[in-house]
Specification:
The complex is a heterodimer of chains A (about 1000) and B (about 260).
Chain A (H helix, E strand, L loop, with lengths): L15 H8 L29 E10 L8 E8 L2 E6 L6 E5 L3 E8 L5 E7 L4 E6 L3 H21 L1 H9 L3 H9 L2 H9 L12 H4 L5 H4 L10 H15 L6 E2 L1 H8 L4 H12 L1 H7 L3 H8 L6 H9 L13 H17 L9 H9 L4 H15 L9 H17 L1 H10 L4 H9 L8 H14 L2 H13 L1 H4 L5 H13 L12 H5 L2 H12 L5 H29 L9 H17 L4 H4 L3 H7 L13 E2 L1 H11 L4 E7 L4 E7 L3 H10 L7 E2 H12 L3 H12 L6 E3 H14 L7 H20 L25 E4 H9 L2 H13 L17 H10 L2 H17 L4 E4 L13 H4 L9 H20 L7 H13 L7 H14 L23 H16 L6 H11 L2 E2 L2
Antiparallel strand pairs in A: 1-2, 1-7, 2-3, 3-4, 4-8, 5-6, 5-16, 6-7, 9-12, 10-11, 10-15, 13-14
Helix pairs in contact in A: 10-16, 11-16, 13-14, 14-15, 14-16, 15-16, 17-18, 17-19, 17-26, 20-21, 21-25, 26-27, 26-44, 27-30, 33-36, 33-37, 34-35, 35-36, 41-43, 42-43
Chain B lengths: L12 E10 L5 H9 L13 E10 L2 E10 L9 H5 L4 E7 L3 H17 L5 E7 L17 H10 L20 H11 L2 E4 L8 H11 L2 H12 L17 E2 L13
Parallel strand pairs in B: 1-3, 1-4, 2-7, 4-5, 5-6
Antiparallel strand pairs in B: 2-3
The chains are: A alpha+beta (about 1000), B alpha/beta (about 260).
Protein name (chain A): Rab-GTPase-TBC domain-containing protein
Pfam family, one (chain A): RabGAP-TBC
GO molecular function, one term (chain A): small GTPase binding
Chain lengths: ~1000, ~260
Amino acid sequence: MSTISTALRNFKEPTKEQLTQIFFSVPNTPSTPTPAAGNGTDKTPPPSQEIEKMDINAVLSLGVQGEEDSYAGKLYIMAPYLAFASLDRKSVRFTIPLSTIRRVERLNARAGIYALSLSTWHGAKIIVQLTSLRPTADLFCSLLRDALKVELQRGQMRAVKGFVKTCYSEALISTTSTVADNEREDGSLISEEKEDAAPRESTYHGGLGLKFKFPGDPKKLREASKIKLWTQYLRVHGRNLTLLRYPQCTRLVQVGLPNRLRGEMWETLSGSVFLRFSNPGFYEELLEKNKGRSTTSTEDIEKDLHRSLPEYAGYQSEEGISALRRVLQAYSFMNPELGYCQAMNILAAAILIYMSEEQAFWLLEVLCDRLLPGYYAPSMHGTLLDQRVFEALVQRCLPIIHDHFQEVDVQLSVASLPWFLSLYINSMPMIFAFRIVDCFFCMGPKVLFQVGLAILKINGEKLLQIQDDGGFLNLMRDYFASLGDSAHPNSPDPRARAITRFQELLLVSFREFSIITDEMIQSERRRFRSEIIHSIESFSKRSAIRNLKTLGRFSKEQAGLIYDALYKAMCIVPPPPELQLLTAPALVATGDVGTMTEEKPETRIGLKTFQFFLSEIATWARDERIVSNGFQRRVDREIAEHEFIDRLFFFWDTSCRGALSFQDLISGLDGVIFNDLMENIEWFFNLHDKNKDGFLTKDEVLTLSETFLFIFRYEVGDAYLGAVSRFMTNAFEYGDALQPETGEAPIINEQGGETPPAVPTNQPYLNLATFRMVVLADEVLESFFETDLSASFRLEPLPEMELPVSSSGLLGDIWSTIATDNNKKMFNMFTDEIGKTIGKHQVVHRPSIGRYTKLEEPKLRESLLTPSMRHSASKSSLSAESTQTIATSTSTSSTLSVDVNVGAGKGSLPSSNSSYTPHPMLQAANIASFMERTPFAIDDAKDDEDESDEDLEDGENDDQVMDEVDAFLEAHDSGLTDADKEVAKDLLHAEPVK
Amino acid sequence: MADSAASGSVDKSVQVKLVLLGEAAVGKSSVVLRFVSNEFQANKEPTIGAAFLTQKCRLEDRVLRYEIWDTAGQERFHSLAPMYYRNAQAAVVVYDVTKATSLEKAKSWVKELQRQANPNIVIALAGNKVDLVQASASSPSVPASSESEDEADDATATPGETPSSSEPESLRQVPREEAQAYATEAGLLFFETSAKTGEGIVDIFTEIAKKIPIEHILAATRGAAGRPGASGSRPGAAAEGSVNLDGNTKPKDACNC
């Protein structure tokens, strides 16, 4: 009754390139907007050529008066985006789509200076001086040129015009001035752009606030002056798609965005505007395609719609509710794996006050995917991880509070979890929370941590008084309720009295906790990730075991081992996604339950995964080759494939769904592992009795013999082979004897399908009693059923699986690039080759049972030839062949390349499914020949798979290094000498090269 | 939040940490709200992680101060639950009588609590929304204000419900006997409740109060109680927010606040 997810194992630390993309809010090109197969739109992402990426040192200056500063930094081309960041990574930065660049000119300047002037759609002139070597700069320019051409061809350049009309900032600017329009005329690549004027106003996107009012008192919020400041800023520095972020931008954000502009600034600052720009119509299509669809997510959403910011007027009306419903549903359709998580309703409701549905949809995507990674995932690992990180930061920055909490056993997350999960919207009065959200979108996720730390610090003294979780929560509740109060009510200075507690909070957040950087959070996340994954996994393991309907005769520990094997199998051979969550509809489709009982999603595995699972547990379900080549001794394990395993799969699939759940596996194993002799015989019989009529047909007897041969395929010596032969002989003898109307010779060995046998192969032939008798007549088979069969299922602790990450730092990186599976394989092959050449290469198959290692006398094999088996021809051919194989194997002398035999054996094993009759003996021959060889000492062979477990913990030093680098960067803010600044200034007035 | 009826006299009241668990939308929050606060607001803020409420009760000569942790019901919040039920002395596991699967979930919660939580924890099983399965004639709602109508939204938010008065019993998916039998077997207190009508709500807390080893808790917390300014000392709101559990046989005049 539970789901098992291996998603956490797939986590990969972002590469440096990805980190850059994340920093610049560049959508990751192919993956982001691909809707889940089948239920989304089939809109393919634009055919992006191999995306050229390059960065180059550059000095940025702005071609306008009033902005004299120049900044050294790096210019990145990440088609279809151009991005820049100053050296300190925060003062100045921009990300603009190439399609908004209307003209690029090489500037005629002093000798040796390579500078470009870029004119954007909004008329801003960006001047970049490429300070790298000439060839590098040339290369960069040619890349830029090519990328621009591509954008032009894609028609993106045209799209810009229509798109910006959806932005409020355009309306804002155009009503106050026409400067931008004038600027645009000369730089434009598009001709039809003159007719704009009046209709603009009505086309921009906006949120519910336009109709239902924005929270807060506009006068108190000083909306008018904020709008004025922003208008000035946006006019000069570009807006929406082309916004350049200078220090003033951040400052303006920190005093709070004006309500009317807030939605657009959120999408611009977070980069979700790029998603909306590059996926026009996607949102509507998505909703259209999934119209009327009902999922568990949509049900969950429905429950919460009326509980999302219910105090806001917009959500007391159907208009607001249905907008919220559509946005949340659309997201759950696009990302069914995540679906819907409580708290997303609060976020969506909050942003819908300021943005249109489409804007909100894309912002939600950026939130869930990039800004709050893993927060809302089914395991909520991101939330848990960041809580752990937060706790560590509290320990580091506020040790006294941390110690006190430890002492009185108060858990920080009790209060802080909702802060992070709902971006403080659920905790603080909305007007304050939105200002934190402003900063969050502008400055990144670190803001959540900074504010959290500041809250604790400000309340430090009171926090030291609290004794339990409840007290902590009450204190926080009171504090949040008082955020609007004066921070210094008793101060004589009226200006000090005017400072609210909220202002104080922001001040403390960004002043005292400016040491918290995104890099620090990244590295803390790396530090704790495996710990968190581990605890989530062991939690779900415990609950999976607890939720079993029955443990059978297993102890909890044993069930745990079975779970581990299942989990490993799922990691390595992930079940197809449609199997993972077989829910109610699938159940109804199979029609085995009359009433529509709603069933919980439950993880089930398919055949492939099952094969791996079984290979972990049953010795005969794997091919283990013990290879020794003089350098090393290792066990190569491969998953065996045989009809028997498939048979087992369907035998255990009691609910006939073509997939097994954890419970099925437990029950299935329970049905064999604890069996005694008689039970095992019956189990084995039933397994092969397809139609469950209590009789095996002749075909089934043959199949059963195949199974024996499969299980015994690596046994040393031919005792087992003999046993199987005797079994067949006896089975057919008895079977025939018991047939009411027996006619001719029962054995149909060679002719196979050609001459129809007396008893049709699909008629009931052998019953359980007879089968039992035949088995018990043979010592080897008897002992197989008595103990070996059950014992061949082994529940052993698996070696701890490597967690995906956590080897950070240089050494870790190098190690992880070296110690890949591929390289291990190559190393193994290499040593094998050497081993072969020096004659020390040996490969031995590890037997599945390994009991009769000593040969029984060959005469036992002679006794195969009981009267009923008179086709001496076959016998002679058999022995001929076997000697032949032996000859070949011995002729290859000391290298003993057993692989030849293995190949032959393996080839014939699976193929035998279709035509049974002649094959078993051939196989027997192969196996016999194989067994003739001298047995090797194999018992002491050890697994040596645990090579790469070292070197996993050296992330520590990196932090320090990063800190130093940061410190260095702080010291060189704009990174320019005065002379450089001169040059930059000159460039502002430079003429383009003719 | 509801008024956290902090105690004026820390020493006399016994703090009892109680956690509410159960599948989403079975009405956990409604049960708490019915118990804690009469001034019900429609569509209270959703439960993220857990909501925290307090309520003071009098039982005989004792004052109990319930610290109630109302947890989020969505499955993915499950892994957070241990944070809330650790150290809890009591738990109310809620299911919905009109939804069979919710009892299954409740059972799994009970199992988890019995394994992972405080060994002496007192667990009560509450089958909520019985108002939906009672003949409409026999559901005389409590002195119902318009607010408790709103509450119904919350308590009955099962898809496709609309309790048709014709045959209300058909909505029931969990027979009382079955749940009762399970509760007896697992050693739980058992109630069928309706947050909408108030039926059975106070009984839960009364019975828990009776069953809880108060002396034990007192002994354990005595050390901490002496310290000044302990947990949320907000005097003033003390008296009026409390519920008298004494001799409260009729559930309907339960909430006297």
